[in-house]
Write a structure and sequence with these properties.
Strand order of the largest sheet of chain B: 1-2
Distance between the termini of chain B: 50 Å
Number of helices of chain B: 9
Helix content of chain B: over 70%
Structural class of chain B: mainly alpha
Radius of gyration of chain B: 21 Å
Order of helices and strands of chain A: HHHHEEHEEHE
Structural class of chain A: alpha+beta
Largest sheet of chain B: 2 strands, antiparallel
Order of helices and strands of chain B: HHHHHEHHHHE
Radius of gyration of chain A: 42 Å
Strand content of chain A: 15-25%
Strand content of chain B: under 5%
Oligomer: heterodimer
Number of strands of chain A: 5
Strand order of the largest sheet of chain A: 1-2-5-4-3
Chain lengths: ~190, ~210
């Protein structure tokens, strides 16, 4: 470096002492550079997303170990399972409350059922019987809901399953008659 | 975060290092990011590069023994990374192969102006005109010679010496002298319009050294 360039560097860095063409040139540049407008970029001091990226990068590069996930995952899993069970249990209880029914008797070959919502139970039972291949029809009479269905002579498992699910016995004549009344206090 | 906490975390590793990494981010990110974004002129690249810097810091933490404060050490690492980035984007072009090489008469003109004239104290209008002109010239300079522009900024900001510039560039003293010389030549090339204006020739306002 020429002495002149060294002088220029010193002046640009703010160290020059003498007054010369070189130092004037550098001083002018230094003053302008110092006064230069710089775009003020807004940066959050704490940025969780940025921190997570940094930690992920550090883990990827092997600088820090991956977090001990097992206990966390276990606890998380247990907690999640508990929540699911609780929700399921609640829904089951609720479902049972709403959908509960009682098979009271089979007077005159007609099965009597009571429930909080006879119409809903009728629709559900109709749907299940039909899904099992039974020709079933629903009706409404004198405030009660009813179902008539012809069962085949030999009951397939699917129909037996539906009958068992609802606590219904197989009619001797092969005709399923059901009346569904509201609960006495309704 | 101070240097003692940093050294401690470096020795401890594990969870201490993770916490220290977050502390580094909270303490220095904004400052490093602004400097980086100024040099790179690319906010997204600057964000990545600062995170690269933090990772490099931890890779080299064993070499930091607390002789200096933490920030200058971190800054040096980041400035290396900035120069690498700039060179990858725009490899350094030797002055003698530049199409727009500084004409000898322009260099002489600036030398003469500096020798014969003093910068005129600007009034409001001239200040604004000068400022706009400088911004234009600086943008051209940054575009054409980004690493020279970055180093010149750091010289002004931190008063870098010849030796410090050599360390930053990882060059021999001779190569560093050449780099500094090129900084001056390139600056003259790109700031000639501004020099003319600053020394007051455009409005006949020139003051000679003797007048002053």
């Amino acid at each position: 470096m020429h002495d002149d360039d060294a002088l220029w560097l010193d002046a640009l860095a703010g160290r020059a002492t003498n007054d010369s063409a070189t130092t004037r040139e550098a001083h002018l540049l230094r003053a302008a550079l110092s006064a230069r407008e710089v775009q003020d970029l807004r940066v959050e001091k704490i940025d969780p997303a940025r921190e997570q990226m940094l930690l992920a990068r550090a883990r990827r590069d092997g600088l820090i170990a991956a977090p001990r996930q097992r206990p966390q995952r276990l606890w998380f899993g247990l907690a999640a399972a508990a929540v699911v069970c609780l929700a399921f249990g609640l829904s089951l209880v609720q479902k049972n409350d709403e959908d509960a029914f009682v098979v009271r008797s089979a007077q005159g070959g007609t099965i009597q059922m009571t429930t909080a919502d006879p119409h809903a139970l009728k629709l559900r039972l109709l749907a299940d019987l039909r899904a099992a291949g039974v020709k079933a029809s629903g009706y409404q009479r004198l405030g009660s809901e009813g179902i008539d269905a012809d069962l085949p002579p030999v009951l397939p498992e699917s129909i037996v399953a539906v009958l068992n699910r609802y606590g219904l016995t197989r009619p001797a004549d092969g005709v399923l008659r059901i009346e569904i009344a509201p609960l006495p206090d309704q | 975060m101070d240097k003692h906490a940093f050294i401690h975390a470096c020795r401890e590793g594990g969870q201490a290092m993770e916490q220290a990494l977050l502390a580094l981010d909270r303490t220095f990110f904004a400052l490093l990011y602004r400097e980086c974004a100024r040099s790179l002129r690319d906010p997204d690249a600057a964000r990545d590069l600062v995170q690269d810097t933090f990772v490099k810091i931890w890779r080299r933490c064993g070499t930091f023994h607390g002789e200096s404060e933490l920030l200058p050490w971190i800054r040096a690492i980041q400035r290396h990374a900035i120069l690498d980035w700039l060179r990858k984007r725009r490899p350094e072009v030797p002055m003698d192969t530049l199409g727009g090489e500084l004409a000898p008469e322009v260099a002489q003109r600036i030398a003469d102006l500096s020798a014969q004239s003093l910068a005129t104290p600007p009034d409001e209008l001239r200040r604004s005109e000068l400022h706009a002109c400088f911004q234009r010239c600086w943008q051209r300079f940054e575009g054409a010679a980004p690493d020279h522009a970055a180093v010149m900024s750091w010289i002004v900001e931190d008063g870098l010496t010849h030796e410090q510039i050599g360390e930053l560039l990882e060059r021999t003293p001779g190569a560093t002298r050449e780099f500094i010389s090129q900084c001056r030549k390139r600056a003259r090339q790109h700031f000639s319009e501004w020099y003319e204006l600053a020394f007051g020739l455009s409005d006949g306002n020139t003051r000679t050294v003797d007048d002053a």
